[in-house]
């Protein structure tokens, strides 16, 4: 059986300092790439000039600024391959990415493939960590229907079957949230086929902050607002799929997600001015955190360990609790060779 044709869509807005790196990573794949498309979403820097230097090696589409969702919609409308990888222009693919994805997508029952990403700093140097450590695979449609968001790779760590995406697209745009396109594409396609997880780090996720190790929030995350943001996105996902896939019904509300609740819990404690106010803040956040631990897809010894971690960062003196909080919440704080579980 012949391998599917893999297209790469690079979504860019004002990342001229990283764009050449992303394009080069797509063009130097060991397995032939069907096409490389750059969607420039209204950049005001030198992005267009940089993209044009690659000439007819790429297809360049320039549009008015509409956000990541608009870039995904435009990109899918342009591709002619069987499979598409949406690469954020601040990230880059490793040379074996397209070949691994093509082999995994030979099975036509697979609608989505996701894979790990190694963390790199602003200058492209390795930070020594890989995300995520856990990725779900198999028939996950019922999981999505139940409002449980399975372990998944962030945006650049995904490939989708084009025919599945076209049953769903366009992704719904929202004037106050123009990002999170991978959230909709990822969980939507899980209703249309199997999800396959590849074990290797096939791409690199760029962390923009030089001092990211000191933060409680991973990489380029938005902090404690992500809990509310995810709930809003889930409601839009539910409404979108009810129209795109008549007969599909998702649970009314999204289940508590430990990957987000842990950051909300830790941030609530350590953004307060004193130990005592941190205790009170932790008490307010504890019910949501415990619910996310209780329903997490893992064994009870792991759940108890997570609860122990939470109690530790809550009750220990701050000089002891803060390093523990960073260690679990932010993979950049862990040092060389250490991994963590993370979701976009």
Summarize the model shown.
This protein has 344 residues and is an alpha/beta fold. It has twelve helices and nine strands. The longest helix is centred in the last third of the chain and has 20 residues, at 275-294.
- Rg value: 20 Å
CATH class categorisation of the domain at 6-215: Alpha Beta
Hey, roughly how much beta strand do the residues contain?
Answer: 15-25%
In percent, how helical is the residue content? 40-55%
Distance between the termini: 34 Å
How is the biggest beta sheet arranged?
9 strands, mixed
Low-confidence stretches: 336-344
CATH superfamily of the domain at 6-215: Spore Coat Polysaccharide Biosynthesis Protein SpsA, Chain A
SSE pattern, N- to C-terminal: EHEHEHEEHEEHEHHEHHHHH
Can you tell me the CATH architecture of the domain at 6-215?
Answer: Alpha-Beta Complex
Count of alpha/pi helices = 12
The pLDDT mean sits at 90
Q: What best-fitting shape do the alpha-carbon axes yield?
A: globular
Explain what this protein looks like in three dimensions:
This protein has 344 residues and is α/β, with parallel strands linked by helices. It has a domain at 6-215: Spore Coat Polysaccharide Biosynthesis Protein SpsA, Chain A (Alpha-Beta Complex). Helices cover 40% and strands 18% of the residues. The protein has twelve helices and nine strands. The chain has helices spanning 16-27, 47-52, 68-78, 97-104, 141-145, 162-168, 181-189, 226-244, 258-270, 275-294, 300-315, 318-329; strands at 6-12, 35-41, 59-63, 83-88, 92-93, 110-120, 126-131, 158-161, 194-206. Strands 1, 2, 3, 4, 5, 6, 7, 8 and 9 form a nine-stranded mixed beta sheet that branches. Helix 1 (16-27) links the parallel strand 1 (6-12) and strand 2 (35-41). Helix 9 (258-270) packs antiparallel against helix 12 (318-329), helix 10 runs antiparallel to helix 11 and helix 11 packs across helix 12 (318-329). The longest helix is centred in the last third of the chain and has 20 residues, at 275-294. The protein is globular. It starts with 5 loop residues before the first strand and ends in a 15-residue tail after the last helix. Residues 336-344 have low confidence and may be disordered.
């Amino acid at each position: 059986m012949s391998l599917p044709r893999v297209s790469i869509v690079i979504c860019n807005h004002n990342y001229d300092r990283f764009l050449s790196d992303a394009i080069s990573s797509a063009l130097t794949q060991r397995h032939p790439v069907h096409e490389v498309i750059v969607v420039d979403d209204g950049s005001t820097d030198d992005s267009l000039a940089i993209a044009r230097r690659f000439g007819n090696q790429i297809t360049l589409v320039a549009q008015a600024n509409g956000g990541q969702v608009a870039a995904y919609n435009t990109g899918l409308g342009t591709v002619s391959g069987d499979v598409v990888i949406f690469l954020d222009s601040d990230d880059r693919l490793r040379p074996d990415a397209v070949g691994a994805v093509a082999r995994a997508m030979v099975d036509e029952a697979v609608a989505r493939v996701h894979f790990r990403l190694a963390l790199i700093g602003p200058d492209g140097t390795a930070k020594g960590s890989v995300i995520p450590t856990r990725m779900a695979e198999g028939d996950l449609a019922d999981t999505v229907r139940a409002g449980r968001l399975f372990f998944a790779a962030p945006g650049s760590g995904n490939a989708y079957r084009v025919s599945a995406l076209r049953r769903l697209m366009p992704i719904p745009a929202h004037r106050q949230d123009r990002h999170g396109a991978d959230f909709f594409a990822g969980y939507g396609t899980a209703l249309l086929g199997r999800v396959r997880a590849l074990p290797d780090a096939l791409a690199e996720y760029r962390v923009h902050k030089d001092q990211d190790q000191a933060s409680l929030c991973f990489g380029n995350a938005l902090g404690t607002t992500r809990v509310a943001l995810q709930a809003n996105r889930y409601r839009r996902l539910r409404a979108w799929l009810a129209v795109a896939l008549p007969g599909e019904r998702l649970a009314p509300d999204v289940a508590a997600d430990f990957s987000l609740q842990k950051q909300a819990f830790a941030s609530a404690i350590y953004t307060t001015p004193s130990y005592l106010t941190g205790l009170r803040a932790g008490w307010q956040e504890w019910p949501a955190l415990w619910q996310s631990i209780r329903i997490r897809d893992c064994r009870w010894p792991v759940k108890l360990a997570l609860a122990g971690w939470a109690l530790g960062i809550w009750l220990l003196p701050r000089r002891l609790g803060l390093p523990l909080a960073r260690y679990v919440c932010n993979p950049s704080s862990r040092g060389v060779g250490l991994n963590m579980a993370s979701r976009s």
